[in-house]
Amino acid sequence: MEAKKNFKTLCVHEGELEDHRFKGVVSPIYMSSAYAFEDIDKKRYPRYFNTPNQEALVQKLAALEGGEAALIFGSGMAAISTALLSQLKQGDHFIFQNDIYGGTRNFIKKEFPRLGIAFSFTKGLSVEDFELELQPNTKGVYLESPSNPLLKLVDLKAIASLAQSKGVWTMIDNTFASPVNQNPIALGIDIVAHSATKYLGGHSDITAGVVVSSQAIMDHVYASAINFGGSLSDMMVWMLERSIKTLALRVAAQNENALLLAEHLEDHPLIKRVHYPGLASHPDHTLAKEQMKGFGGMLSFELSAEVAVSAFCAELTLVKAAMSLAGVESTLIVPRLTSHALLTEEERTEQGISSSLIRFSCGIEAQEDLRADIDQALLKAKQ
């Protein structure tokens, strides 16, 4: 029996395509959109998710999350929506964690009623909050931990145990943690999704999504995916495979930067509050130590009333105010204007998303340079 490879080794070598002709050390790229169909074992077509590069990459992705199979999509929302709709039908009920990505929440609110799928959002994040939402027709539970943008955690093992006892399945958006820091399948979660645009891609030049699960579940996801048409181009597939080779190294550096920056900001007089599970002051710090291997490269913080949000963003010189996250460069957004702009003001308030909240994605720059840029911007933006 082959020994299990280290995570770093899986990032580099799992799912490689061998260059039989020229013996190159990187996977060759197959750009063809048309393949022969006679006298072959498999009919290949990009929309069928079975080009050589697509098939190789999903082996790597499944291995990194400890799943049996995976599919790669054109975006994170393509992955999440396909996975959900492949498992649900008219008359079903589904439970969603209240604190989730704004795009996912908008998809649920817009599309589920039209399809006759009932849903409810939890009032809180405890096991009891999820149990309260269970109905006779409940089919599954959707989680996001750490959550976007407040970095709240849910007890994955406890929620998985509850779901299994009730005969329902579980799904998680693991984007914020990445496979480096958290492996939900090992904790009992059934389906793992990622916006591969973020940590898996890591260079702000790829848009992609991933779903990982058992082979049986992925067979259902695949059956819907080939109809929805959300496959990823082979050029992007090849770029993503290249990016994942450095995933473990990048995330380790981002984890370190985030913790040091969170500690610095927690003591800053112009910062009202810092949200980061690596801080001892975070309400879920103990849980984070139990179910995560690293605390992640994301944090959020609330500016004091003395600091103008727009001025703070404008005064930054190294950090970029930009959509998306998890690139090697540090970026930030104002959630109420971007990731959660589609929510109502009432929904944002309910989730604790204030007008002064900044979501910060740590890159791999030197810590002292990040601190200096943030400190000078805070001082200049002080009213």
How would you classify the helix and strand content by structural class?
alpha/beta
Q: What is the rounded distance between the termini?
A: 65 Å
H and E order = HHEHEHEHEHEHEEHHHEHEHEEHEH
**How can the largest sheet be summarized?**
7 strands, mixed
Number of domains: 2
Please tell me the overall pLDDT: 95
The best one-word shape is globular
Would you give the CATH topology of the largest domain? Aspartate Aminotransferase, domain 2
Strand content: 5-15%
Count all strands and give the number.
Answer: 12
- Give me the Rg, rounded: 21 Å
CATH architecture of the largest domain: 3-Layer(aba) Sandwich
Strand order of the largest sheet: 1-7-6-5-4-2-3
Structure, described:
The chain has 383 residues and is an alpha/beta fold. The chain has two domains: 7-244, Type I PLP-dependent aspartate aminotransferase-like (Major domain) (Aspartate Aminotransferase, domain 2, 3-Layer(aba) Sandwich); 248-381, Alpha-Beta Complex (Aspartate Aminotransferase, domain 1). The chain is built from 14 helices and twelve strands. The protein has helices at residues 7-13, 52-65, 76-87, 102-115, 127-132, 156-166, 178-181, 215-228, 234-244, 247-266, 285-291, 309-315, 345-351, 367-381; strands at 69-73, 93-96, 118-121, 138-144, 169-173, 191-195, 209-213, 271-275, 298-303, 320-321, 331-333, 357-361. The strands form two sheets. The protein has a seven-stranded mixed sheet with strand order 1-7-6-5-4-2-3, sandwiched between helices. A five-stranded mixed sheet has the order 8-9-12-11-10, covered by helices on one side. Helix 2 runs parallel beside helix 9, helix 3 (76-87) packs across helix 8 and helix 12 (309-315) packs across helix 14. The termini are far apart.
